[in-house]
């Protein structure tokens, strides 16, 4: 459905000077709107009441178009100050919102050539700023010149001119053109989205995308949604939105390698200077890394001795007592903690105690020394951040751990490479590659 909103000017419906159709009729001839809102100020309403010229001329045009149309007159008989921009900005804003709410899927056309300069300017600005699509249409004056004050012609003269125009339309021609090729609000929104992407602020980028969704391509919208889900560690959301986008990221979706996605999530926290979240987020990474390191070095699958209840992974005493490796693990845990309790979650510290024990023969290996250094960083940085109200920045981390955030992250990545998870080096830049893909889709 096409809807035209049109202020009525003094060259509508027919210019008294040139005897050409005004902007209203020229737009209707070539765009054939299904419904027309006619905005009439005091002077225009007086002419309308005199001979119903605007509606009768529209009826004559649509008779030749062999099409029905609806119209609604917006009566502003009390409006005499027709040069006040602020009034028309607020007035048209409210009217156009209501039109859109009633017809959310309609194509809204705006006649930005009829009416006073204040009316035209208000429509231009609103078209640029609204968060839904509207098409502003300009109509050039015949022979590219302004209209001067006309002599009086009758309604019958107007109808006769319309008959001539509709009989030989090629002579009178299409004087319309789209005033703005793209909505300025969308252009601004695209720049804002790009800026948020470059700053790794996926929540803000997705919020803007939702506000301007009807301007975005399906691919761009769903790529942004996938990036938002990725940064929230929502694997299913990533896959669903990538499918809708018909695209892909360099994204590990297996449960085992999702660890890498979590490390990348931590790297984004560094880029956004969210160092409290970064240092607090280290513990789950070390839990998984130290477990994998012990398994890789000892050849023992620790899952044989663990229980996963609703996401809580803990040691299972019965399983530990089921074979010699389990008994050795239980012995180390009991000795390390002066009486081990099975209520606690299995942790990086548990796995590190196994690596450091002579029972498994890996205590002097380089991977164990690297694990010890990471565990020290976790204790010195995270524990103080978790139990005190402190400002966390790189100065704090350097002072407490001996390393800044980038250095800590690089140690974690180095550890991942050592335990050979099969991660490509370029994958550590996959967020940058993803951002560039999304930014390019908006161009």
From TrEMBL:
It comes from the Bacteria. Residues 72-152 form the Csm6 CARF domain. Pfam families: Cas_Csm6_CARF, Cas_Csm6_HEPN. InterPro entries: CRISPR-assoc_prot_Csm6, Csm6_CARF, Csm6_HEPN. Residues 259-439 form the Csm6 HEPN domain. NCBIfam families: cas_csm6. This is CRISPR-associated protein (Cas_Csm6). It comes from Peptoniphilus gorbachii.
């Amino acid at each position: 459905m096409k809807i035209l909103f049109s202020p009525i000017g003094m060259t509508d419906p027919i210019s008294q000077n040139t005897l050409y159709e005004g902007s209203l009729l020229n737009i209707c001839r070539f765009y054939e709107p299904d419904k027309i809102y006619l905005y009439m100020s005091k002077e225009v309403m007086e002419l309308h009441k005199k001979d119903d010229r605007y509606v009768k001329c529209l009826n004559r045009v649509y008779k030749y178009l062999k099409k029905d149309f609806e119209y609604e007159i917006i009566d502003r008989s009390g409006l005499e100050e027709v040069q006040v921009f602020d009034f028309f900005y607020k007035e048209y804003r409210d009217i156009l919102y209501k039109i859109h709410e009633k017809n959310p899927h309609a194509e809204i056309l705006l006649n930005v050539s009829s009416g006073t300069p204040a009316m035209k300017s208000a429509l231009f600005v609103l078209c640029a700023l609204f968060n839904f699509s509207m098409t502003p249409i300009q109509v050039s004056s015949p022979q590219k010149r302004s209209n001067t004050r006309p002599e009086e012609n009758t309604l019958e003269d107007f109808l006769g001119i319309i008959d001539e125009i509709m009989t030989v339309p090629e002579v009178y021609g299409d004087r319309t053109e789209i005033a703005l090729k793209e909505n300025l609000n969308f252009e601004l929104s695209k720049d804002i989205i790009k800026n948020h992407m470059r700053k790794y602020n996926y929540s803000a980028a997705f919020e803007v995308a939702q506000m301007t969704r009807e301007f975005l391509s399906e691919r761009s919208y769903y790529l942004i949604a996938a990036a938002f889900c990725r940064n929230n560690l929502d694997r299913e959301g990533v896959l669903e939105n990538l499918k809708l986008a018909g695209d892909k990221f360099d994204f590990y979706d297996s449960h085992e390698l999702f660890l890498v996605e979590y490390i990348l999530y931590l790297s984004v926290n560094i880029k956004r200077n969210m160092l409290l979240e970064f240092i607090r987020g280290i513990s789950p990474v070390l839990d998984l890394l130290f477990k994998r390191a012990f398994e890789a070095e000892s050849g023992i699958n620790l899952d044989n001795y663990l229980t996963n209840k609703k996401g809580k992974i803990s040691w299972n005493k019965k399983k530990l007592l089921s074979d010699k490796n389990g008994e050795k693990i239980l012995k180390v845990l009991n000795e390390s903690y002066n009486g081990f309790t099975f209520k606690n979650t299995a942790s990086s510290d548990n796995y590190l105690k196994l690596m450091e024990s002579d029972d498994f023969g890996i205590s002097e290996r380089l991977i164990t020394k690297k694990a010890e250094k990471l565990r020290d960083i976790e204790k010195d940085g995270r524990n103080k951040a978790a139990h005190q109200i402190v400002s966390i920045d790189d100065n704090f981390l350097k002072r407490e751990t001996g390393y800044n955030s980038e250095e800590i992250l690089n140690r974690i990545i180095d550890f991942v490479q050592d335990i050979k998870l099969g991660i490509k080096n370029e994958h550590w830049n996959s967020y940058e590659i993803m951002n560039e893909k999304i930014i390019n889709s908006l161009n």
